[in-house]
Amino acid sequence: MSKKTKQDLIVSAVIYAVIGFFFASGMNMLPDSRVFPNLILGFMAAINTCNVILILSKDRKQRAAGHEEESMMTFQDAKYPLITFLGTVAYVVLFVFTNYFIATAVFIILFMLIEKIRPIWLPFVITAGYCAFIYWLFVVQLSVRLIQ
User: Fold this and answer.
1) Does residue 50 sit in the same domain as residue 85?
2) Which listed residue, 72, 112, 117, 118, has the most CB atoms within 10 A of its CB?
3) Interior CA angle at 42 toward 37 and 48, to 5°?
4) 123 contacts 112 by C-beta, under 8 angstroms
5) pLDDT tens-digit profile of 65-82?
């Protein structure tokens, strides 16, 4: 078994563990309330099982054909997913200390600048339009309290 296959199987095992944790956490919910979360967890388990089957069949085919294993993931490959994860964590922290509009505006502008959206004024205009639309729709029309 190649290193990449082992790595993929470890990730799949972690996904199964997370699914099991969420399933066990939902056991104290009311029976009617846990139907949808269990349905989503079932879909996740089915998709992960399909992924495991594909990983193993691909590894078997590569070994039968005598191909060398694919290279492992490098930091360069994982740079943007890591930035996205850290940005999302920062968004949650900023959301706790400010409000929806400030945290969302900062999050959208920073990610558009990271993605090098040009011209430089465009992320600011898009964010202002988005925040104005959300404010109008939820605060003005639906009377939802997004600002505390």
Assistant:
1) no
2) 112
3) 125
4) yes
5) 887 666 666 777 778 888
Say if 105 falls within a structural domain.
yes
Considering the domain architecture, whether residues 102 and 130 belong to the same structural domain is answered as yes
132 domain-assigned:
yes
Specify the pTM: 0.58
Rounded to whole angstroms, the Cα distance separating 77 from 111 reads: 18
DSSP per residue over 33-89, as a string? Answer: TTHHHHHHHHHHHHHHHHHHHHHHHHHHHHHHHTPPPPPPPPHHHHHHHHHHHHHHH
Largest CA distance in the chain: 64
Question: Residue type for 14, please?
Answer: V
Residues 61, 98 share a domain = no
Amino acid at 113: L
